[in-house]
Amino acid sequence: MAVSEEECSNAKVRSSSSPSSSSSSAPSNGVHYLAKSVLRGSAVLHAIYGHFRSSFSYDIVFGKETSIELAIIGEDGIVQAICEQPLFGTIKDMAVVPWNDKFHAQTPRVQGKDHLVVISDSGKLTFLTFCNEMHRFFPLTHIQLSNPGNSRHQLGRMLAIDSSGCFVATSAYEDQLALFSLSASGGSEIIDERILYPPENEGNANVARSIQRPLTSGTIWSMCFISRDSSHPSKEHNPVLAIILNRRGALLNELLLLRWDIRDHAISYISQFVESGPLAHDIVEVPHSNGFALMFRVGDVLLMDLRDALHPRCVCRTSLNYFPNAVEEQNFVEDSRVTDFDEDGSFNVAARALLELQDYDPMCIDGEGSNVKSTLKHACSWSWEPDNDKNPRMVFCADTGEFFMIEISYDGEDLKVNLSDCLYKDLSCKTLLWVDDGFLAALVEMGDGIVLKMENESLQYISPIQNVAPILDMSIVDYHDEERDQMFACCGVAPEGSLRIIRSGIIVEKLLKTAPIYQGITGTWTVGMKVADLHHSFLVLSFVEETRVLSVGLSFTDVTDLVGFQPDVCTLACGLVGDGLLVQIHQTAVRLCLPTRAAHPEGIPLSSPVCSSWFPANMGINLGAVGHDLIVVSTSNPCFLYILGVRCLSPFHYEIFEMQHLRLLNELSCISIPQKYFERRRSSFMNHAVGSCAAALPVGVDTGNTFVIGTHKPSVEVVSFVPGDGLRIIASGTISLTSSLGTTVSGCIPQDVRLVLADRFYVLSGLRNGMLLRFEWPSASSMFSVEIPSHGCSIGSCMLSSDTAISNTAAISLEPKMLAVDSIDNTMDDLPINLQLIATRRIGITPVFLVPLSDSLDSDMIALSDRPWLLHAARHSLSYTSISFQPSTHATPVCSVECPKGILFVADNSLHLVEMVHSTRLNVQKFHLGGTPRKVQYHSESKLLLVMRTELSNDNDTCSSDICCVDPLSGSTVSSFKLERGETGKSMELVKIGNEQVLVIGTSLSSGPAIMPSGEAESTKGRVIVLCLENLQNSDSGSMTFCSKAGSSSQRTSPFREIVGYAAEQLSSSSLCSSPDDTSCDGVKLEETETWQLRFVSATTLPGMVLAICPYLDRFFLASAGNSFYVCGFANDNKRVKKFAVGRTRFMIMSLTAYHTRIAVGDCRDGILFYAYHVESKKLEQLYCDPSQRLVAGCVLMDVDTAVVSDRKGSIAVLSRSDRFECTGSPECNLTLNCAYYMGEIAMSIRKGSFTYKLPADDILTGCDGVITKMDASNNTIVASTLLGSIIVFIPLSREEFELLQAVQSRLVVHPLTAPVLGNDHHEFRSRENPVGVPKILDGDMLAQFLELTSSQQEAVLSLPLGPPDTIKTNLKPFSTLPISISQVVQLLERVHYALN
User: Which pLDDT score is estimated for 1322?
Assistant: First the structure.
């Protein structure tokens, strides 16, 4: 946790009167940034289990310091993410308050749900409930415990919850605690009574003093409630709290029992238990035992009988160090979890403090190492088996990584502890969670967690839980196939160090690709043989003048003639109208086909298919759709709509007949028929059918007779057909979109339209201009309401105002009748329901096609436009995520036994079969390297990754660090260069010397710390090593350059045979990529005859550890050594490093970066210092210094005058040369702090980005919205990676864009739907560790919530009055007093969303 201790006043800024903090104005040089998380931290610090979505859902909540993730473990044992939300605060502890049947909910939507209770740096105790409609947690109430921050002397460190859910306790690190009783009345107050200790106002000082000393004077290590007989009402007894306490100066911890006398409103001392022996560290209540608890000590565990609180006693002592049966070693991964202090202080102490939630002052960078391990085992995590009230069982993990089970059984009147043998061995777990179906989630600090399953009294490995934390270094490389970036990151620590390839979007696993020979594809469909089939039987490909039908299975075989489809026409639509009855719609006819058994085992037993056709009268069909027992086609010029049915005349003889036709006032643009039955399929992933908010069908919508159409009016219409009664319009929504300037948006014709039933019934429409719309029935908004007592209003009331306008971007009007035909009955005289336009989004400029992933009405969809997106059907408003795949023209789901989640994309005239698991938590590919990967560089010539590893484990102990070359396609190590024994790699850079490149490495030759407690450098030594990477085919022994690949070719050949065109393709193992993002299917691999090898060139010893290397001016490089840095080059013989100049700082140098002639030096006290090197005189000159003390973690120069720097306290700042004074060469010429941002996470690596945030529509929309200014951000974007595994992108904005979004942010931070859920003051949180009055970087995570709202909610947000004065700078354009256009805000935020996805 990046903390801000009150005691660290010396780390604060020197003076608030400095030039950087004397004004609250915006940056003088026009530097404006927006910070957006593209990957939230993956380090899980807390994990709890409960019924959060409904009383019968089984949910996991992962607490990740600054965000929370709701997930489940599926039937296959894979952790699947449901949602994740930022907190705009820092979690200290979290727990679940179980639902108690004695409670009465304020609203039925909360009834039966468990509550999530969190204490955080807001200083508040927060109760959260999950809202299924909004798909996120919302606060029920906040209780102020202390001042915001992370002080050890105030409440808010630890939580304990009574097993009945009636009482909550929280403590500080030392001395203080508070107890709360929860109200069962269901009123607005969740808390019934509370008591603090010590009391805030002590009436009798002598009495208070007499009871204070034996109570909680000391450090509180652990606490839990001791339950009473559950048959008694909870309020009839006073709760008992057990505490593990370390009194100041005591050698042993004691068990202290306290009672809360509710009637007397006092906390009283009951008894204490101290026994000589190992150190006690945790106390855990035994569930359903009514008075028993386990006390964990170093080396053993005690079963405590606390039923008689006056006389606590130990009834059983179990050692953790001796077991009768050893476990076979080969079943386990050897554990060598690193806890040593890193010499340069770069991450181990910081990361350990972050992940263990310990107080840590990053300014105090030295400390004692923890490399002395105890020989006694101790439990570091545990979890009880859920729903076991007979013989409670616990699985715990020891610090050795061994898993054991404790079973509590009755032996007469007492309980007995049965300790199992070792069940499994892996890394030591930070958090352990036992969930339903015998699954256990084991989370480690700095590596992947695992899912285990309890089977036959043993634990079996099931699947990994990805964790990329900590990210120690990264390299951003353009992904050549898809013209998007991917990141190579050094993740984890020894022994689980790995290289990860991180990409944005949803993972797709590439299974199959054909040659680019499929030009002119106009449509793709998959159909089954029967309505109830779980798998598809046929794949239909339509071309401009041709149609092909392929069988789906282990092979794709052409069966067009056996199915009966007409092959020489372009198919407009096809589908299954009934069991065994396939329909093909083309321009001249509707064709009904009965496939043969040769095409499908359940086909007709004839040699050729049976077919019949229906033809329109002298008209051409332009659209069609097939549903169960229903076919709908339309014609143009004249415009008619035909409703067709199918009837059986004799066995194997069916005919299509017309049930109704009518003339249209407007031509149709699309038709969609949902599946016959509206019942939603239960999904283990989304489990939409949770809560009591089951969506009711609107009036007029019936099963099996409803479809939806899009018209050229333009509009969307929901139509119902009942045989005998005819057609009837149920609901209609006219599409009329306007820009912020009042001009009509063109191209609003629906291209595709779908009905969706997920918690509510709504209509989705993709337009031909690249926009996406969502319509809802007007009454839907009144169905949902979750009270927020702390804000005084309900979520439901904030979502829609039924009497107000929908949006200033749309105007809905409706003609009385869209369909005109005499046969419609008199009920059509009633107007259809006017659909409300809830949300609009632009996802491109090409037409939007909607492709459901299944026939279920609650299925997620692929939205195809300029690029593929995954549209989340159950989310509020419109929510979509990019799919990590190239732009495609068509897509269709392919479900077979071999590939149950397949999708067929058509891209670049090729067919791509991929498998998408959109519940996968991270789009990350892992290459296990071992050791701790510290640095990574990408060499474009050889297409190899150069990785520096430390803490390698070798049997002969000859080397602990090396430089290895890794193939990014396979993860294999091509070659390596080992450092000398006792030498540790510290830094590494590719340095360009003229037209040549070398690899320069900085090392340490000394053991022990690099830095004194004062911040000055220790007396150490290091080396600068120069290497070159040679292609042995073209190597020149006298050259120090990287050699080009010999015989390389850009010509790629497909690794797959074509899958259609009268040939069958086997889905063999050779067709599978090695991982979800393995580019070996498309990329260029190294030639098998090529060998690249690192060759030693030279080495130079320097008087200090070389913690930083940096290229400089294409002729030099910079190298630090202690508190000195050198300008280095190469002698004429190209073999020896030559030092040209040296500069010195007062403290240890942590980073070096350069831009043209400017040099930025970051040290561990004085922050960033600017230097210039004069080549002629060979002298370094200090130009500017940091106005604040700063422990630099990373730095990058944007230009010669601007630096972006991250520190070890969780902040990032932009500093630049001030324009208000001339450069005099004096160190007193301070840099100006332009803007700052508190992340709450330490960013160790900062890089420049390389993309421009711009929608393809920007070129078309130029000039439509005056405030949206085009700005090239390609060279000014900043990418930062953190120790918790986050990746944050800082995007530059123009002044107009900044002012607009700042006005929006000031309202979002106070609106009940978007305010920080933990009760943090958003401005205070983002301003920590920075001077008062410094402009802030905009919070992209806060602003992103605006896109998740409906149009009416967006209006409600923008209509709020101005927020606190410090959220809007006085000299900015007062957007708060001017109407803010929703379309302007949405368009700008869509740009950011589009670019970052």
Answer: 94
Flag whether 594 is in a domain. no
pLDDT for 1070: 29
Strand partners, 129: 138
**Does 861 lie in the same domain as 719?**
yes
CB of 929 closer than 8 Å to CB of 490: no
Instruction: State phi, psi for 586 to the nearest 5 degrees.
Output: -130, -175
Distance CA(273)–CA(250), nearest Å, equals 14
Residues 6+ apart with CB under 8 A from 1051: none
Report the alpha-carbon distance of residue 405 to residue 320 in Å, rounded. Answer: 11
> Per residue in 1340-1364, is it b (16+ CB within 10 Å) or e — as a string?
bbbbbbbbbbbbbbbbbbbeeeebe
- The answer to whether position 30 is within a domain reads no
User: Both 737 and 863 in a single domain?
Assistant: yes
pLDDT of residue 1246: 93
User: Under DSSP, is residue 212 helix (H, G, I), strand (E, B) or coil?
Assistant: helix
- The pLDDT, as a whole number, for residue 1142 is 95
Quote the CA–CA distance of 1306 and 1325 in Å, as a whole number.
14
User: What's the pTM?
Assistant: 0.83
Q: 1026 CB contacts (<8 Å, ≥6 apart)?
A: 998, 999, 1000, 1001, 1040, 1096, 1097, 1098, 1099, 1130, 1137
* The dihedral sign for the CA sequence 466, 467, 472, 476: positive
Q: How many domains does the chain have?
A: 3
Indicate the residue among 836, 869, 902 that finishes a domain: 869
Cβ pair 302, 317 in contact under 8 A: yes
pLDDT digits (tens, 9 = 90+) for 653-671: 999 999 999 999 899 999 9
Determine the Cα–Cα distance for residues 1127 and 979; give it in Å rounded to an integer: 24
Q: Are 917 and 507 in contact (CB under 8 A)?
A: yes
* In a shared domain, residues 712 and 842: yes
Q: Give yes or no for residue 1084 having a pLDDT over 50.
A: no
Domain extent at residue 993: 977-1030+1093-1144
Amino acid at 725: D
Choose between 440 and 1363: higher pLDDT.
440
862 and 983 inside one domain: no
- Can you tell me the mean pLDDT for 981-986? 92
Q: What is the mean pLDDT of residues 789-814?
A: 32
Sign of the C-alpha dihedral computed for residues 1102, 1103, 1108 and 1113 taken in this order: negative
**CA 1276 to each of CA 197, 457, 589, 1051, 1236: distance values in angstroms, whole numbers, following the listed order:** 52, 57, 57, 34, 16
Q: Which of 851, 869, 887 is the last residue of a domain?
A: 869
* Single-letter code of the amino acid located at 888: S
Given a contact cutoff of 8 angstroms between Cβ atoms, the answer to whether 1086 and 975 are in contact is no
Which tokens sit at 787? Answer: 């009270």
* Residues 1199-1213 pLDDT 10s: 999 999 999 999 999
Whole-angstrom distance, CA of residue 592 vs CA of residue 601: 19
> Does the residue 725 lie in any domain?
yes
Is the CA virtual torsion 341, 344, 345, 348 positive or negative?
Answer: negative
- Detail the DSSP E strand segments found in 528-589: 538-543, 547-551, 571-578, 581-586
Pair (858, 983) in one structural domain: no
Using omega within 30 degrees of 0 as the cis cutoff, is the peptide bond preceding 470 cis?
yes
Residue 411, C-beta contacts closer than 8 angstroms, at least 6 positions apart: none
Planar angle of CA 1187, 1191, 1195, nearest 5 degrees: 80
Give φ, ψ of 75 to 5 degrees. Answer: -60, -25
Tell me the CA distances in angstroms from 1214 to 766, 1162, 1197, 1295, 1326, one per residue in order: 41, 14, 10, 16, 14
A 10 A CB-CB count for 143 gives 21
Distance (Å, whole) CA 787 – CA 795: 6
Which residue in 1297, 1302, 1308 sits closest to 1347, CA to CA?
1308
Average pLDDT over residues 906-933: 85
Within a domain: residue 1311?
yes
